[in-house]
Amino acid sequence: MRKILLILIGWLASYGVWAQQNAQYTQYIFNGLGINPAYAGSKGLINVNGIYRTQWVGLEGAPTTQTISVDAAIAKQKVGVGLLLINDQIGAQGQKTALTNTAFRVSISENARIALGIAAGISEYYTDGTKLHPNDLNFDPSIPTTKVSTILPDTKAGLFFNTDRFYAGLSASNLIRFKNKFIVTPARHFYLTSGYIIPLNDWLTFKPSFLLKEDFKSPTNIDVNAFMLIGDRIWLGGSYRTGTKLFKNNYQELDVANAWALATEIYLTEKIKVGYAHDFTLTSLRDYAGHELSLGFYFFRKEEGRTQSIRYF
Which residues form the signal peptide (predicted)? Predict the structure, then answer.
C-alpha cells in the first residue's frame, strides 16, 4: 500500500495536481480565518482555535494538517488582528506557514459591517526525497534523495461582510507565486462563501451556507452545508463537497471528486467549545475516512458578556 501511494503521489506531482491544493478543512464553517483574513476580529473578542485533521486514515502517507489561529478586535472594534499557524503534510511533501492578519472594519449600519483583510507571512515548502525512493534502479534521478526545502513569502487578501443574520466573504490565497524544481507550491486560490441564519423557534436555529473554491486549473470545488443550532449550545449538521467543471481548464478530463461530512460543535461553557467532523470520500478511497478535531476558547471581560451572533459565524 505504501508503494502504491508513493507512486500515486509521484504521478500527481509530475502533472502539477498537488500544486493546486491548499490545506482543506471541514470546520471552516465555525471559524473562517483559515480561508479569509478579513474574518479577523469579526466576533469582537479574543478567539483562539486549534484544529487537527487527518484524512484517509489507514493509508500511509495520507494528508494530515494542524492549525492554530488567534484573532481579536482592537481600536474600538474598527481593526481586527490575527495569527495563523499551519502545518500541512501529504506523503513526502509538506508546508509550514505563519501568517499575521489585519482587517479594517467599517460599520455600514447599526448591525452591518464590512471588512478588508490582508495576511502576510512566510511558508516553508519541503520534499523529503527519502520517502520517494523505492528499491528501483530505474527511479527518476531528478527526484531528490534527501530532504529539500525553501522558505518563501506568503500573502492573502479578502473581504468579509456580515449582519446579525447574514455573512458573505470573498478571498484569495497564495497571491505571490514561485516555481521550484523540487518543491511543489500551491496555486493561487479564490474563495467565495456565504450563509444565512434562520431562527425556527426558541431552541432551534438553521444555518445553510456554501463555499466555492476555484483555482482555474482544476475542477471547481463547491461545499453545500446545512447546520442546526440546538439550545444555543450544540451545532449539528453536514456538508456535501463536489467538484464541477465550471470553467475551462487543463484538467477537464479528470473526474470530479465527491465527499460528504458530518460535523458538530459543542459549547461546554460560555468560553470553551469543542468540535468534531467525520469525512466520507465517495471515490476509490471510500474505505478511508477522515477525522477532524477542534478546540476553541473565547476571552472577554465578564461585564461584556457575549452576543449570540458569535456562535452563528
Answer: 1-19
